[in-house]
């Protein structure tokens, strides 16, 4: 199964669940093993929460765009919000001592840990554009 979809989600937490379910279901259809699906789901959840909460600030007037590209043995997810965007180099390192007890700030680190490729940039429209790529393991095919 290969192909792509382009879906718009409202800026609310129900959209986080819907986006995660959609991507994990596609990963299952592609034959990703349970661990890979769980990792991908966690990364999608973190990216969507950031887009909804930080990017769009839960605004009912803004949406999160999710582009899902399914290839042979891989899934590429691009999540774009309508916020201000941010510079990844300006985000405080959550592993530094002064940031260890902060209640937020670990989502980007978690996304990077759970996918095989990760990038973030300012989208052409100004918001954040996060790209997550996960490859199926040989045992998951």
Summed up:
The chain has 141 residues and is of the alpha+beta class.
For the record, the CATH class is Alpha Beta
Radius of gyration: 15 Å
CATH fold node name: Heat Shock Protein 90
Which second-level CATH architecture applies? 2-Layer Sandwich
Order of helices and strands: EHHEEHEE
Number of domains as seen in the coordinates: 1
Going by CATH, the homologous superfamily would be Histidine kinase-like ATPase, C-terminal domain
Give the biggest sheet: 5 strands, antiparallel
Helix percent band: 25-40%
Tally of contiguous helical segments: 3
Based on secondary structure, the structural category is: alpha+beta
Strand count: 5
Please mark out the parts with pLDDT under 50 across 5 or more consecutive residues, or reply none: none
What separation lies between the terminal Cα atoms?
12 Å
* Side-by-side strand order of the widest sheet: 1-2-3-5-4
Oligomer: single chain
Mean pLDDT: 86
Protein described:
The two termini are about 10 Å apart. The chain has a single domain, classed as Histidine kinase-like ATPase, C-terminal domain (Heat Shock Protein 90, 2-Layer Sandwich), CATH 3.30.565. It contains 3 helices and 5 strands; from the N terminus they run E-H-H-E-E-H-E-E. The radius of gyration is 15 Å and the shape is globular. The mean pLDDT is about 85. With about 140 residues, the protein is α+β, with helices and mostly antiparallel strands.
Question: SSE layout and pairings?
Answer:
Layout: E1 3-10, H1 13-30, H2 34-55, E2 63-71, E3 74-80, H3 107-114, E4 117-122, E5 128-135
Antiparallel strand pairs: 1-2, 2-3, 3-5, 4-5
Helix pairs in contact: 1-2, 2-3
């Amino acid at each position: 199964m290969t192909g792509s979809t382009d879906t718009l989600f409202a800026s609310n937490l129900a959209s986080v669940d819907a986006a995660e379910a959609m991507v994990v279901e596609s990963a299952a259809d592609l034959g990703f093993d349970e661990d890979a699906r769980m990792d991908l789901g966690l990364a999608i959840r973190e990216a969507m929460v950031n887009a909804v909460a930080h990017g769009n600030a839960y605004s009912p007037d803004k949406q999160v765009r999710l582009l899902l590209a399914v290839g042979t043995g891989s899934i590429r997810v691009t999540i774009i919000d309508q916020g201000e965007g941010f510079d990844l180099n300006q985000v405080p390192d959550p592993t530094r001592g002064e940031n260890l007890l902060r209640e937020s700030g670990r989502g980007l680190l978690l996304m990077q840990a759970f996918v095989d490729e990760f990038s973030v940039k300012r989208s052409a429209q100004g918001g954040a554009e996060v790209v997550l790529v996960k490859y199926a393991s040989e045992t998951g095919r």
